[in-house]
């Protein structure tokens, strides 16, 4: 598996470049976030050796086990938190992640603001929007997004730079990507994290600036 990581990265980068060109966009605007959750550090290291820098993890604890050693060897790696964040892990998130993509409620906004103030570290934040309004999923509801964005910026002075979404499984993702883009646009936000292995090319067509790709790079996960 380690040997094929570089080839997989290259193949995904090529698909990103093609999708960008087809959308009339500059491929350089799009960051590939390699999602390494549930894969061992050795595979991440193979990607780092191939020159890749941006990674995503969905659990704080798992990231804390894998990434400090990797960061020592590769200080310019950029780690994104892409999974739900509990308020009591805000400190670890602020200290260990370079982008927090799952800001979605006032309590968490308050906790992140407090920790950023204390730690002197201000990782950019994306607000997760539950575009499919799925009850089991985290993320702010689309109709509440504008007010929540304003709260994060004005009351908590958080470095909010964009939005993130995970469309419902089995639904056509385009409508969700278009909705996320619309909310970002009317709020003057430039970063859009959307698109995974199955649909990142469509997301690029709808303006994604970061795509989160796991399986197409690291292979299948053993889902728990
Ligand atoms: C696991 C995960 C991904 C990557 O999914 P793949 O289908 O393996 O590319 C992207 N985003 C989030 C939030 C994830 O949890």
What portion of residues is helical? Answer: 40-55%
Give the rounded overall mean pLDDT: 97
Domain count: the total is 1
Taken from the alpha-carbon principal axes, the silhouette is globular
The structural class is alpha/beta
How are the strands ordered across the major sheet? 7-6-5-4-3-2-1-8
Named once each, the bound ligands are: pyridoxal-5'-phosphate
Proportion of strand residues:
15-25%
Query: What's the number of extended β-strand segments?
Result: 8
Number of helices: 9
- What is the CATH architecture term? Alpha-Beta Barrel
Overall description:
- With 224 residues, the protein is of the alpha/beta class.
- The chain has one domain: TIM Barrel (Alpha-Beta Barrel), CATH 3.20.20.10.
- The chain has helices at 2-22, 41-49, 60-73, 90-96, 106-119, 145-155, 174-186, 200-205, 215-218, and strands at residues 31-35, 54-57, 78-81, 99-103, 125-128, 160-164, 191-193, 210-213.
- The chain has an 8-stranded parallel sheet with strand order 7-6-5-4-3-2-1-8.
- β2, α3 (60-73) and β3 form a beta-alpha-beta unit.
- The longest helix has 21 residues, at 2-22.
- The mean pLDDT is 97.
- Pyridoxal-5'-phosphate binds next to β8.
- Residues 35, 37, 58, 82-83, 166, 196-198, 212-215 line the site of pyridoxal-5'-phosphate.
